[in-house]
Amino acid sequence: AFGVIADIQFADAEDGHDFGGCRRRYYRHSLRLLREAVRAWADESPPIDFVLQLGDSIDGQNVRRGEAESALQQVLAVLGELSVPVHHAWGNHELYNFSRSRLVHTGLYSRPAGGSDGPADRECHAYHCSLAPRLRLVVLDTYDTSTLGTDPGSLRYQESLRVLRDKNPNDDLNSPAGLKEPYFVAFNGGFSQAQLDWFDGVLKFSDENQEKVIVM
After folding, report:
1. Alpha carbon distance 143, 195 (integer Å)
2. pLDDT tens-place string over residues 197-214
3. Residues 64-106: pLDDT tens digits?
4. Quick one: 74 exposed, middle or buried, by C-beta within 10 A (0-12, 13-18, 19+)?
5. Does the N-terminal or the C-terminal CB of the chain have fewer CB atoms within 10 Å?
6. Max alpha carbon distance in the chain (Å)?
7. What DSSP assignment string belongs to 1-50?
8. Is the full-model pTM beyond 0.70?
9. Which domains does the chain have, with CATH numbers?
10. Which intervals hold domain Calcineurin-like phosphoesterase (predicted)?
11. What is the C-alpha separation between 214 and 216, in angstroms, rounded?
């Protein structure tokens, strides 16, 4: 048994709205909801074995407020009350607040220390680990190819920008206006071929060993 939570998007800020201005966002209240989730998981019987945090743990506005580190520590402190591992995905809001090189040194870098090889690129957050006999977790890095959180002088950034420019001619790369493939915008991301090849190898290994796989 395991817990799942997504889009906490915490900020110590007054309520607001989403990017489109349509849906109300309760930035400060989200920490209370996280505490309620943690209490609910702690009361589960039989107990849960792990939690999957699916990304966007803090909101992007924290970086503008100079509160990225403090907001993240508040979220991690609540999750730290759990006695089971928490596996983290990285979303666009993590990458608004932190560079990839910084994220690997935060509590959002959840790759276990042993027996969970990821791609050769150490800034790629993809990894896999055995959760139980014949049960494997694969955590994918869906912003492996992205301009977010990436040094503009790096090969990763240049390749990501090339993909965007090939598909999105708009001056504002966050705008999907007129696109046949509207997901080619700067706040989205994708997989490098290296990560896809690695993922294929993990799935072949699990298939050969008759494992079930949870893909996050």
Report:
1. 11
2. 999 999 999 999 999 999
3. 999 999 999 999 999 999 999 999 999 999 999 999 999 999 9
4. middle
5. N
6. 53
7. -EEEE----B-SS--EE-TTS-SEE-TTHHHHHHHHHHHHHHT-SSPP-E
8. yes
9. 1-110 (3.60.21.40)
10. 2-104
11. 6
The whole-angstrom separation of Cα 67 and Cα 69 is 6
d(CA 91, CA 143): 7
Cα separation values, 107 from 123, 143, 211, Å: 14, 18, 28
For tokens 């991301």, the residue is 189
Identify residue 66 by its one-letter amino acid code: G
Question: Is the CA virtual torsion 7, 89, 77, 37 positive or negative?
Answer: positive
The per-residue pLDDT for range 30-77, each reduced to its tens digit, is 999 999 999 999 999 999 999 999 999 999 999 999 999 999 999 999
The answer to whether 164 and 189 have CB atoms below 8 angstroms apart is no
Burial code (b: 16+ CB inside 10 Å, e: under 16) for 140-167 equals: bbbbbbbbbbbeeeeebbeebbeebeee
Distances (CA, A) of 105 to 123, 134, 160: 10, 30, 23
Quick one: tokens of 211? 């494992």
